[in-house]
Amino acid sequence: MPDTQLDMDHLSGALRRETVKKNVAAIHISGKLSLLQRKLSNVLLLNAYDALTSASTHTIDARTLAMMVGYNSNDFDTLRASLRALAETVAEWDMLDEQGRQEWGVSSLLSFAKLKSGVCEYAYSPALAQKLYDPKIYALINVQIQRNFSSGHGLALYENCYRFVRTGSTGWWPLDVFRKLMGVDGSDYYSSFKHLNAKIIKPAVAEVNKSSDILIEPEFQKKGRTVTDIRFLIKGNPQKAMFEIDDNDGVRNLRVYKTLRDRGVSDRLARQWIAEHGQEYVQQKLDYVSGQGDVKSTLGYLSAALRNDYQVPEVETPPEPSPEAVEAARQREVEKAQEDRAFADRAAERTERSRKLSVVEELVSRRNPTQRDADKQLFLAGLDNDLDREHFRKHGWRSGLNATAIFKFWQELEPDAFT
């Protein structure tokens, strides 16, 4: 078991990269795999890639593998069946070598796979390993993106189009080649273009455009009235690219961000305020607080100013107050003092929660990518309603809705973490 752990640690660099260098020929081999089997193939390749040609076998924790792919971590029957399918799937390639000579070859996708003591061990044939590792002819398959797909045909089309994103087009494929890439060759039903277009092409194109970082559009060639060839025009998906951008560096360069940090506001809270209110509004409240002289809690006062939209009052001579007005003002001051104390208590609670979330962030940073993925899946399994699960999927360990459960989860893993 110690040797297995060392091997898994050695491969963590590949897992951290989150992309698979996938040989073009290899992309063409698994059209008949199910969606989960195709994802499994990608994750296994990602895990093995750095040692693909130097190690004869590769290992990965079986539960982690199942969760990365989307299986129930205890569903070893499905995992075994999928590994069997990969071992029974034939890979075929037909390409030119460095001297321009034609090379044809065939191999099973996995030469063997076994599950023992909670570890999955597997191997590729030497010839296929060389093809998978060839840096000259590959597409980058993003394992994060593949999780968005719900159909094998959609993911197969994405894999076969992505490698052409720089050229803008796949080039023309005869329909029989396209059917093979989609895993529907040999089907009488899909020999009809009408059925192929309605059940395979249109749904797969829609899923690629919705779920991935590229946009594709099919074009058809005809001989007479019969469609004979298909190609896909490809460009980057600007909406997806927008969501992928981490703008933290841009926010951190703003003057208002730097002012907030100088006032003792945490990095995360400063970015949250700017994102929520806009930099001009935040700057207005900073100016307001600066005009109030010394205050006991700049952070609390600024938070209240943002929440309640405090404004600089207009200067005017007030009328002489009546006794009733004086008493009402005194009562308001008492109520305000009570509110301020309550606000201070809530601010202290938020500060403590922020401190604990920072501790969680530090704990997560110490985990390797395999452990992080397993931690997330284990935490999700403990949530008992869809709202909590969806909020955690969106915000991860920063999910305020699940803060109490998150602290309890990490307290159990690291009893002294928050002391």
For CATH, the homologous superfamily of the largest domain is named as Winged helix-like DNA-binding domain superfamily/Winged helix DNA-binding domain
Low-confidence stretches: 1-17, 136-141, 241-248
Number of separate structural domains: 2
SS strand fraction: 5-15%
**Number of beta-strand segments:** 10
SS element count, helices? 21
The span between the termini is 33 Å
What CATH first level of the largest domain would be assigned? Mainly Alpha
Q: From the alpha-carbon coordinates, what is the Rg to the nearest angstrom? A: 29 Å
Give the helix proportion (percent range): 55-70%
Largest sheet: 3 strands, antiparallel
Task: Tell me the strand order in the biggest sheet.
Answer: 2-6-5
What is the structure about, briefly put?
The chain has 2 domains: 2-242, Arc Repressor Mutant, subunit A; 246-310, no CATH class. The protein is built from 21 helices and 10 strands.
